[in-house]
Automatic annotation (TrEMBL):
Annotated keywords: Signal
Name of the protein in question: Protein HRI1
Signal sequence residues: 1-17
Domain of life of the native organism: Eukaryota
Amino acid sequence: MVLDLLTLTAIPTAVGASEAVHQQRVLDKEAESEERQTLFYLDVFCDAQSRKRDEVHTAMVVLKDGKLRLWPKDPHTKLPKTDPGGGSPPHPFTGFYLPFPTEDLPNHPIPAPPILGLVSTIPPDSSVPKDKRKKPKLNWIYADKRTRELKYGPRVEARQHIIGPWDWTDDDEQGLILNGEECLVAVEEESGGLGWAVYWDGEDDRLKAVGIAQEKRVLRCSLERRLVEE
């Protein structure tokens, strides 16, 4: 059988597309498992040798002002403490794993390999009365490719940055990892105990390569999953 040139050049693309479809089906099946879709909070474990360690260790991750921040945890409720300024407690990260639609990524290859993303419920709109609020909305969690801050936002915003792959540690399925590594750190943006935010330390150098360590305190930490009890 003789194949023309057009047919021959189309074979690699067809094979690649078939493999991408297969990978996507595998990822979708895994993401649809009960374990992947179980809601969880994120607690902070920090063993850094720092006088500021206690401001980070045992805190939990919250969504506040567009970013993932650290907040003291109430020892009884295991949820964020009341704002010392008199406001309501911030919204705790409450998320699960979900494949990110790779067709939405800018300049994505064809076929595009699947990427496991991470989503969380977001703070409710304070302008809407509680009795009229609908089902909690979800946002994608991503690392800002320029500042390395962990943020939350809609898909159109997240796709411009680092949206995954997210996963959990193989040994205990508790530690949160990005790009295959436990590479998340706490950065003290403001003093006073409530000024810590979560950043992505892709180079594993406490953000020295991007100039943050020279200006702010950076503590290595582990963000660990705690399942939401119904």
